[in-house]
Amino acid sequence: MDSYHEPIRDIAHLGHVELLTPKPDESLRFFKDILGMEEAGRAGQSVYLRGWGQYERYCMKLTESKQPGIGHTALRTYSPQALERRYAAIEKSGYGIGWTDGDIGHGKSYRFMDPDGHQMEIYFEAEKYQAPEHLRPALKNQPQKYTGKGVGVRQLDHINYLAQKVEPNSQFMQDALGLRVSEQIVLDNGTHAGSWLYAGQKSYELVYTLDATNRRGRLHHITFCVDSWDDLMRAANIYVENDIVIEGGPAKHAIQQTLFLYCFEPGGNRIELATGGYFIFAPDWETVTWTQAERAKGQAWRTPTIPSFHTYGTPVVEE
Amino acid sequence: MDSYHEPIRDIAHLGHVELLTPKPDESLRFFKDILGMEEAGRAGQSVYLRGWGQYERYCMKLTESKQPGIGHTALRTYSPQALERRYAAIEKSGYGIGWTDGDIGHGKSYRFMDPDGHQMEIYFEAEKYQAPEHLRPALKNQPQKYTGKGVGVRQLDHINYLAQKVEPNSQFMQDALGLRVSEQIVLDNGTHAGSWLYAGQKSYELVYTLDATNRRGRLHHITFCVDSWDDLMRAANIYVENDIVIEGGPAKHAIQQTLFLYCFEPGGNRIELATGGYFIFAPDWETVTWTQAERAKGQAWRTPTIPSFHTYGTPVVEE
Amino acid sequence: MDSYHEPIRDIAHLGHVELLTPKPDESLRFFKDILGMEEAGRAGQSVYLRGWGQYERYCMKLTESKQPGIGHTALRTYSPQALERRYAAIEKSGYGIGWTDGDIGHGKSYRFMDPDGHQMEIYFEAEKYQAPEHLRPALKNQPQKYTGKGVGVRQLDHINYLAQKVEPNSQFMQDALGLRVSEQIVLDNGTHAGSWLYAGQKSYELVYTLDATNRRGRLHHITFCVDSWDDLMRAANIYVENDIVIEGGPAKHAIQQTLFLYCFEPGGNRIELATGGYFIFAPDWETVTWTQAERAKGQAWRTPTIPSFHTYGTPVVEE
Amino acid sequence: MDSYHEPIRDIAHLGHVELLTPKPDESLRFFKDILGMEEAGRAGQSVYLRGWGQYERYCMKLTESKQPGIGHTALRTYSPQALERRYAAIEKSGYGIGWTDGDIGHGKSYRFMDPDGHQMEIYFEAEKYQAPEHLRPALKNQPQKYTGKGVGVRQLDHINYLAQKVEPNSQFMQDALGLRVSEQIVLDNGTHAGSWLYAGQKSYELVYTLDATNRRGRLHHITFCVDSWDDLMRAANIYVENDIVIEGGPAKHAIQQTLFLYCFEPGGNRIELATGGYFIFAPDWETVTWTQAERAKGQAWRTPTIPSFHTYGTPVVEE
After folding, report:
1. What residue intervals traverse the membrane (chains A, B, C, D) (predicted)?
2. The CATH number of domain A11-129+151-310, selected from 3.30.2290.10, 3.30.420.10, 3.10.180.10, 3.40.50.1950
3. CB-based contacts of D290, cutoff 8 Å, min separation 6
4. Interchain CB distance below 8 Å, C302 and A252
5. What's the pLDDT tens digit per position in D226-261?
6. B139, B146, B238 member nearest A148 (Cβ)
């Protein structure tokens, strides 16, 4: 028992993602009018957006680009010391890039790549969101007014990358950042087909799944959370009323047990809304491994997985 | 069995109500921005408003007035012949007023008063709502787009009048209009304290409850329906975020078992949102009578009824 | 206007169905333990079952049989006079069979067949359910205690027949029984592929859809209603925990907008749980007609319809 | 920045509570038949009970006693080393009692008292629940089958103690255990009236509120979590059907924003069901302080707090 390995807990949570879109105006309208997000700043070709329940200034930087896909992903550390420790570990891994002076909403950050080539950064100093008059909430323990406009997403939930190989990326996140694997898929030939990584009690914040097209650096989807199964139904109705293409759901994932709804935003990126699932209270959680046969059973309610779900990612690969 | 009395079923449903407000701009903002209703016309000092699920052009005429309260209530008949039959019966009752040429959205109507002095009309010819381009629904069996703005009420649900005496009003509705009583409250001294009247399978559309101030012609509340218990929670959150005063709920009525949420619109009228309850399939439904003792137990979950609920109505009576 | 055709409204509602099962014990366990229904009588090879919200004694007669499928369907009329009128009309149609002395829970009934060969009966005299001590409800306007066991279905909702031809069956129901069509599917070649019939404000109680196997007298499914979208999720979880095969859903139908969940009971019959949809308030409702192209778009949220949905019925046809 | 104080995170979560009841049979029936919990062991005068979503063997030890109230509360540490560190800190505080050999489901524990006299223990070694055949779940990432019986609570959520003084108890939990305060009430005279303490991302697991009767060691309530607002409605219906007295709710707390429902179990203890609220992602969360005036506004939707809520606790104090 003395040899029990105390866990590293230096990453606090997923902070924000930069999403790339070739249709910035239509994408912005989707996130603001359909998802009900609020603008929290603009700079260059980027607009910063937030959900009503988020304590930081924003959770998404929407940036104009030739192709849809993911720009960078930012993780907040638990302390300045934790930032230094993770910096040292990443530097040692050889995947480090260097320090930045920060961006709107947060201080200096350390940039790096995961083995698959997705850009990332870690930071500690963060601006706490101060709502302007028209977005001031009724309850002081809530960062922003719930406006009742559109879907009304609470905040960024997680990001799911596509990767040429899942295992080295998952291993890097475990070794260099101290994340842990709550669930994974291991195929009969030993290939890891999916890895769900967590930092705190939320059971996943970063996910790697296999890219069937064998490309690198692509995005499968980003996810925003809502509060209920009813919110997912309401969102599906709002999507249909506004010609937003639903890819799948509302339904329930077998892995993680999250309730989900997938659509494509006008720029082409897959966007998930999620709620439910479970929290990890056990400090000694044992990774749940799904076999190929178990995976083939489909989602929780035996819903077959949509074919495009296994191949589509951004940037789009023309076959 | 040959002597079984076949029911009159000449009234199809509650069509619309005219609500009076001394603060027309604030009231209009409440119904449009908070409840998410759409404008369907303007005339004189009135704005016509509708919910997304309603087949007629509007369900509420909001009219500027010195005092809040109820203008008139309109019921649609099942056929032109039914309109003539009900006209004849009302005329005979002595409460009739006369025919009108109709209004925006409906043809000629016959006006009358209930014994307590609430203005009413019956009509048959009605305009079916044609949604303009920006409100066109995705599904052709739905009259209007669900916009995702604010509470998003579906349609008018029922109206609850205050009356000096409940029984004669309820009896008039049964005799002259052919409505039936699904539930009622009868106090120990024999006084009828509440009567819930229905026309079709919906278990109530008109309600009379006792006016504790002994006035006549007052309004207790009008009600719009939403689709779920979750919608009531969402509405309560939207109310609080927008300084709309909640009087009671979300909770569940013992009588009718409807889930409810009460607030006051800026003009002072009590507005209920409701969902749930039951439908009356039995053609030989027997009125459910609640005694004084049963009534004293509070709402379905033993929630004590709010004191203002027993006294407040519009126009407001200063004690 | 004088020539306006006043509607016949002689049928009050769908009363009960007789479901046939080759596995009576397993089917009974499904309806009692999984759906949470209560026994309300036994006779011969049949068990009578009920949902908590139903005013009549039972809504399903479960009968042992060599094959799964539908026994008979019973409709309650609005009055004894209405029963006589419908008897006369059916007799005239040539589809009549004759009077019965009644069954547990209801008085004399008139038996007939629809053109496709499904057995039916109409009756008026009905026993109102009297709950035994252990099933007595807390609220007097509710026929039975909600026990909290399993899914907890409220009552029978509708029945969907398969038919070799849809149109003559739908027309018979309109002419002889006075039902009306709320929605229908008409293919490009003019074939009617589906007809949804209603009696009161509930937008459908009997449905005919085309039998792709060209057989007669088969059942597509029977449906019980629950109260919410959350209840459907809970039911899906309960199904999966108990190895009940889900065929589709929870999702939303485009036609009728009902939220649904399909499974197969152990005897092989398809069972739907449903909630939501809309009520028909308009006395002059115009049938909504879906074209082949509109139908091909899938369910409300663009969910593709499950292939088995178009072919499977009971009795099962081996191809 | 170098001087940033890195947080202690040695407590993983609330493990279980021992609840005392003078009516062991009735209490047991409540927890099993109404809340839907499962037995996970018996010893002496105690029965061990669990919710379907819990990874440890049980979350409540129900013990026969002359009086209702709380026996002991157990917290699991993050590691064996964390257990040693907390043992050392508690020992130093003077509130330590000593080591036990453990109990059903967990290894050795260190017992202590909080300043108000509530018994507590910390432990690390814990048995992971292995479901017997009839409780085996369909999905391997779930510890136990969801049986669909009664309310169906997922797991223990938090405990709320009454204390003669709030502040010294809250301070002890911060200093000796490393818990942090997410929200608190500070009255105008400086008295702390409530303190909500958290260990991980769950925003509270231990709560102290002021005992209006000036007693020590009493319990205000224990709370189990369910998954949705709909589950709370369903629970309220189940309570009423089974003569369980509801004290308040379903409604929404202003503090913590949790959706709640309070009742009394047959032994007299107050039991809360909860869902919703928020998660604490910020490592530098700043305690939210509610003033006396803010507190007086009632719950989130302005629901007035029930008077008994301020005075009733167990053991009951006769005034």
Report:
1. none
2. 3.10.180.10
3. A140, D183, D184, D185, D186, D194, D254, D255
4. no
5. 999 999 999 999 999 999 999 999 999 999 999 999
6. B238
